[in-house]
Amino acid sequence: MTAPAPDPKSVLPATVLTALQQFTSPDALPPTGLHPFSSSPEEMLSTLRRIVDTTNQAAVSLNAHLSLPLSNPKLLSLYRQHASISYAVQQSDQNMRHVVNSLRKRVGITFGEDVPLERTQLIDWFLKRLLEWGTSAGMEAFNEPESDRRIAVVMGGKVLVVDIIFAVDRTDPVNPVIDVSSLKTAYAIPNSTADSSTGNSISMDGFLAGAIRAFLKEVQKDDAIRDNVEAARIGSLLSDYFSYLMKLDHLALSEGDGGLRWFTVIDRMAIDVENLASREANVLINTERGTTVAPLDVFLMRAHALPLPYLTTPSISFLTYLSPLAYLKLLRTSPAAGRAAPTPHLPSLDVPFQHLRSVLISHPRPPGITVATLVLSPTPPPAHHADSTLISAIDTKSSSTLVTDIKIDFIFPAAREVQALQGQQFTWILDFTEGGKYPGVVMSQSRMREIEFVINPFNEMGGMDNVPMLSSFGAGSWVDLLFNRDAQAQMSPERYTAVYTSPNSVHPPLQLRLTAPEEPGFILETIPVRTLKEVWSILEIVREQCWLNEILTSCEWVPEGPNTTVLSDEADDTSVTEDDLQAVLKGSVQPRSIPVNVGLPTPPPTDRDNLFADTDMDDLMGQSRPNHAKITMSTPERPPISGLVEIAVTFDPSRPRGVAVGITGAMGVDVNVEVLEEVCRRGGLMGLPGRVWKKAHES
């Protein structure tokens, strides 16, 4: 009888060195963070399990070697020599594997579309490329011969049918032009009558037609200005769109007559959320004086996230946050004339929707913009999710209070019920990376805990609480992760310094000193969701974190150390004039800098974070978020008054500008809080101590 073949998983490595060295390569661990809301949490968990198993095996092996009589010096020397040679061989092999894997896993590397040089061949080449994209996604695709300057292309699956009519202009025989004349999507239910076919989705039609037009516009440019790499990028997006639609097609086919919900859920939800956004914009317009449109930045601070159906995928995206600089650039680049008439169900904003969408889909996307996209991902639902029937009982209150009578509640179709595609499960996720094209959002532990409570309020594990703050080992805080996302810092600094200079020189430079909070950070990438309320609650939490991140990154912070440049109050020369003496006597001398201590208060843990707290189900129902993001700044009082001036800026959607400014101290100084809130809206939050100082010296 032949012995059974050994299980590859049970085969131990040859040496302890080879067992441990497999985890020392740069790509041994996934680049994403160790938390449930990374792009691949299951991969990280599997790697950690292998590390634990290997560590146990190495411990057993080392304990067994303790009993060996290693008293021969020559034998010990041979052991050392063997270990050194093995390490060099393993290191060389590891480096080569890392280089090969890095080259194979490159993202965004393309050599451009192979556009034919003969313009007369361009139409046939494009039709061939279009059919290739469809067939590679699993579609049946064919085109009809050109007739009356029209070319019809039909693509589709078992349920989805895409009918495209192209118009061909051969006025110039040497340079023919092709464009999309019409595109219609239709849905048919198998095993039913012809009347079962529903109408098409105009939003889907416009989205696909716009993507094809963008590709045609790029490839039909003159050779001198055509960008083949950009054309290849658009073509890759079109291929991804068709693949995504075929996922929905398989799910719709597996459900039979009720399968059309996979195609119609986005359109039905988009109409309702756009109507809500329009109502919220009207409330803002009524509060603004002398305007017929709502400011986009104020809308994003006070209302729900702005819905943008079919922005970057055949789904819906949400504009979550816009930095003051990004908003200013949008305003300055908006067309001054020719503004389109307002659409009844769309909010009236000061940035036209057409211009906004064109900026958001540009590549690369301008900095300071946070967009989340709801997509269906072919990943199983995470094990830490609670039952969806229990989730519906939790109704968290929104911090956006512009419209109170909101009766919108969408539950996304659950793919786990149909077990489509040979048992493969699907999950709706909220993606902040646009499929890995952009980095995620740096989040603090407390806000990650709030997100965890939104999607799983019955969690008894306290997943985000189990991550300790290991500052002594250089783990750092979320501020360190924000300032040095790409750097591998060996030690986390306790404080950062920066210099804020007034653009108009209305006050001396501010010497900012930020104490890093003792709270770890994570990079938020994707979140599994099941209802629209979960999406809104998560986006409100992310919005506050983005507000904090943009304020902090508006200054150039450096770690505080012995070589840190500090603005001194001592003059460069020692000469003193009579005017200087009189200024000192009157208390009107202007310092060279104003010291400001910046703090980021960490919200205290609530009762819901304590497993043994006295909290019943009634307290969970309708529980609102008690703490908003806050930045505190303290600066000395003006002489001869002793003490400090405390300035606290809190994210507050109930305020006209979305922030609340509170000042403690500054005795005898008349400060208009509304003016300071407008300054915060325009990105001058870090300059508030200088404005208070100026007011104090004017009074």
Automatic annotation (TrEMBL):
Source species, domain of life: Eukaryota
Q: What is this protein called?
A: Mediator complex subunit 1
